[in-house]
Write a structure and sequence with these properties.
Elements: E1 2-5, E2 9-14, E3 19-25, E4 29-30, E5 46-47, E6 58-61, E7 64-67, E8 80-84, E9 88-94, H1 97-102, E10 107-115, E11 119-128, E12 134-136, E13 138-140, E14 143-145, E15 153-156, E16 161-169, E17 172-182, E18 186-187, E19 198-201, E20 207-212, E21 217-222, E22 228-232, E23 239-246, E24 265-267, E25 272-281
Antiparallel strand pairs: 1-2, 2-3, 3-4, 5-13, 6-7, 8-9, 9-10, 10-11, 11-25, 12-24, 13-23, 14-23, 15-18, 15-20, 16-17, 19-22, 20-21, 21-25, 22-23
Length: 282
């Protein structure tokens, strides 16, 4: 385990999955939930090279078929620590025999955590080390601690928005949407998540605040480049997830060809891209 520390915040990162596992604020305590494998066996996994689930847990590339589990393999790989200081750490994952069996690309994924006085920035850098075009999705999946009922909490979207929630059957998008109204005080409840996550593609906002209705705002998540956001919990569970995504799961009518996958990102040989978001503490 590796630690970053400021005068107000201490975080702990596990090189397995480069996963944030503790996020302790001087005022709010540990903001991440205390993992219970019977409910969900992660803290804040990194989703790569897919977000969500592939139809039948497989895809095709150049007429070859590959199998891959939900959310990809990065969360189960041990990352190499490249740099570590009191307030920053950079970890790296490159392709290996296990990854190439399900994802036949040469790549590098760097994850950098930088701790500021009142914020934590998480940056992902994907580099295509292959001779062919590389296809991928990427996302964050932090689970925040809640006390008591979810209905005691709210989200703040910075303004009022009318958006389309993309509906899910099983683990896949069914092509249907539902209009929902977001506001500066969007009250949460278990009833919102009885079927699955609330997924908003191409969100018109760049900010989500999280706090108690009769208490303080706890934190805000800022992201100005995401292509989707997922909001998720298991009804009755003591966590709530705000998930910045670049890509999303398959639809029921997906072709299975990764080049045609809706929301997929691509990189030319030798090029790289960065995807980052930031937590602000209140």
């Amino acid at each position: 385990m590796f630690k970053l520390q400021s005068t107000t915040v201490e975080i702990i990162i596990n090189p397995l999955g480069a996963e944030l596992q503790q996020f302790t604020h001087i005022t709010h305590g540990n903001l991440l939930w205390q993992k219970n494998d019977k409910l969900w066996n992660r803290f804040a996994p990194i989703l790569f090279p897919i977000v969500g689930r592939l139809l039948n847990d497989q895809y095709t590339l150049n007429h070859e078929s590959y199998g891959m589990r939900q959310h990809g393999f990065a969360r189960d790989q041990v990352f190499q620590v490249m740099e570590h200081s009191e307030d920053s750490i950079t970890l790296r994952l490159t392709d290996n025999e296990q990854t190439r069996a399900q994802y036949p690309f040469a790549f590098e994924l760097q994850v950098k955590y930088t701790l500021f006085q009142d914020a934590l920035e998480i940056e992902h850098r994907v580099t295509n080390l292959d001779t062919a075009e590389l296809f991928y999705s990427l996302g964050g999946h932090p689970g925040f601690h809640i006390e008591g009922k979810l209905s005691a909490y709210y989200l703040d979207f910075g303004d009022d928005y009318t958006v389309q929630q993309h509906l899910i059957t099983g683990n896949y998008y069914n092509g249907k949407t539902k209009e929902i109204q977001l506001a500066r005080k969007f009250e949460l409840s278990d009833d919102l998540f009885t079927s699955d996550a609330i997924v908003i593609k191409q969100p018109p906002f760049q900010y989500i605040g999280f706090g108690k209705i009769n208490g303080p705002k706890i934190l805000s998540l800022h992201c100005d480049t995401w292509t989707a956001v997922g909001l998720w919990t298991k009804p009755g569970a003591p966590f709530f997830c705000i998930e910045p995504w670049w890509g999303w799961a398959d639809a029921l009518d997906s072709s299975g060809n990764i080049k045609e996958k809706e929301g997929i990102m691509s990189l030319a040989s030798g090029s790289h891209s960065t995807h980052k978001y930031c937590f602000e503490f209140h």
